[in-house]
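Input structure tokens:
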């Protein structure tokens, strides 16, 4: 059996690590596996079966044209033609699609090829892009146009990066045409939430199922560190959060209420702050830059007393899982797939935007004590999000196809 995966990145970012994990699992199970990608920090020579799609300048031109005409994934014709020539020669039994919206491939050319060659195709819904007119998520804008026909897109400038034309109606029409033409198509949602959303669309006629993403519990685990000492917060109750969420305009009230509620023995540690975001933060808010090193992330997760994720729209949210794998209770907003990452026993979900309830849960964890919840957090992750256990479900899909 021969499997080809396609993604924007390999070995970096959430989708790139997931792709790498599935690729390595296939190789370990004796499956002839290949990985095509636009970017990777890993040398191509070090990736077994690796294929790099496109060039840096080609991707920049693609991004420019997408901004001008409002259609992402409609350029890079030459690099896509070269790639499809490679795929035809490789002749995989199964093609698995991850993230295709990073200005590196012509989507319709790829989908038309898969339909014509009658390839078994598996789509992983890391976000909503495959069944919308171009946006990745729509919950925060309250949009439901994707159910029938897009147009006048509220996410045109933020997600599609189009400053002129709105082509979302045509994009959605093309999605339906070319994806519906693939006879053997399986759609995998990374959460029950996004799988159910997909079933409301033209994808409802296909096989739609759920496979939760997983984490490497050999990496994400309770880790001893002197992080608190070095940060000068040794005797503090540390609330860990993401700057991209807490400092988002939509969470302004949440941020103000949480920071106003901080006691003298509490700090809010914001991970992933841009330089300008580090200025003029309230008292007892400690900013940190982005951290990509997973060992360092484990030390930070482990040092925190609680992880708070005020996400408003997310397909699953692996950061919630990573924190719990390190023994740190997690509190998350719940209106999308993030609610599936907690069990409301050792981790908790609250109504999105309900800052008062969020603060109550923080205080509950403080009173209960992190140590009383840590083992339950780890067991929850082991039972539901261990990567090899979850990703073997993809191998079952592959094996059922040959």
């Amino acid at each position: 059996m021969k499997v080809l995966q396609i993604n924007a990145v390999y070995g970096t970012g959430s989708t790139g690590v997931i792709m790498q994990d599935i690729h390595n699992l296939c190789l370990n199970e004796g499956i002839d596996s290949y990985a095509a990608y636009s970017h990777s920090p890993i040398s191509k020579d070090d990736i077994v079966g690796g294929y790099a799609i496109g060039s840096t300048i080609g991707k920049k031109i693609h991004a420019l044209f997408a901004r001008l005409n409002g259609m992402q994934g409609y350029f890079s014709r030459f690099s896509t033609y070269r790639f499809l020539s490679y795929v035809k020669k490789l002749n995989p039994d199964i093609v698995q699609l991850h993230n295709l919206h990073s200005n590196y491939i012509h989507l319709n050319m790829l989908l038309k090829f898969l339909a014509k060659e009658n390839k078994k195709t598996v789509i992983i819904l890391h976000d909503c892009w495959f069944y919308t007119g171009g946006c990745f998520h729509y919950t925060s804008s309250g949009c439901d146009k994707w159910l029938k026909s897009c147009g006048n897109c509220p996410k045109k400038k933020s997600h599609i990066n189009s400053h002129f034309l709105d082509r979302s109606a045509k994009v959605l029409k093309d999605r339906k045409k070319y994806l519906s033409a693939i006879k053997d198509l399986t759609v995998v949602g990374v959460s029950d939430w996004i799988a159910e959303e997909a079933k409301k669309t033209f994808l409802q006629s296909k096989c739609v199922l759920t496979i939760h993403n997983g984490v490497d519990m050999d990496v994400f685990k309770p880790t001893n560190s002197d992080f608190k000492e070095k940060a000068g917060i040794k005797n503090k109750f540390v609330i860990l959060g993401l700057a991209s969420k807490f400092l988002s305009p939509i969470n302004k009230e949440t941020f103000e209420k949480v920071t106003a509620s901080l006691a003298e023995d509490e700090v809010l540690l914001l991970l992933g702050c841009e330089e300008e975001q580090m200025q003029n933060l309230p008292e007892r808010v400690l900013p940190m830059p982005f951290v990509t090193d997973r060992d360092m992330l484990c030390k930070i997760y482990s040092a925190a007393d609680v992880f708070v994720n005020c996400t408003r729209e997310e397909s699953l949210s692996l950061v919630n899982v990573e924190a719990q794998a390190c023994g740190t209770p997690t509190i998350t907003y719940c209106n999308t797939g993030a609610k599936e990452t907690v069990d409301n026993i050792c981790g908790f979900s609250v109504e999105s935007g309900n800052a008062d309830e969020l603060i109550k849960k923080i205080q509950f964890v403080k009173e209960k004590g992190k140590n009383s919840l840590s083992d339950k957090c780890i067991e929850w992750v082991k039972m539901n999000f261990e990567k090899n256990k979850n990703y073997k479900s993809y191998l079952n899909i592959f094996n059922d196809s040959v």
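The chain has 14 helices and 13 strands. The chain has two domains: 2-214+387-399, 227-384.
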